[in-house]
Amino acid sequence: MENYKSFVENAKYYLDKNLHFITNLSNISAYIYQELGQVNWAGFYLYDGRELYLGPFQGKPACTSIQMGRGVCGTSAANQKTLVVSDVHQFEGHIACDSESQSEIVIPIVTKFGNLFGVLDIDSPITNRFDENLKIALEEIVNLMIDIL
Question: Is the pTM of this model over 0.85?
Fold first, then answer.
């Protein structure tokens, strides 16, 4: 899937401002997990004002909480910047919830008011899974989500 335009467009079908945010996050995580290929985990960690806690996801059971600034998720959340990690074994402080994960992308979810809502976290069992085009597409999906939060 090199052209991600339809991937982003189809994500809109799983986002509905009239539904609870948990419903939207659940469907989007399932959509990403099913449609991307070569991913072994796709889901959300939500921010409670202190740390990230496990939200809706697809994949193996995961870490239930992550401190701000720890691992890829905590670092992305603390800096409010997308992180693309080509090889998680090269990321100092990586939290290995699944030993099969080799690469990871984490996109922070920041509301229109500048508040951290959480992060979208996607893992892959292969290195270098996440390229610039996919990063942009996933950021677009997160922006669609922000519009309905």
Answer: yes
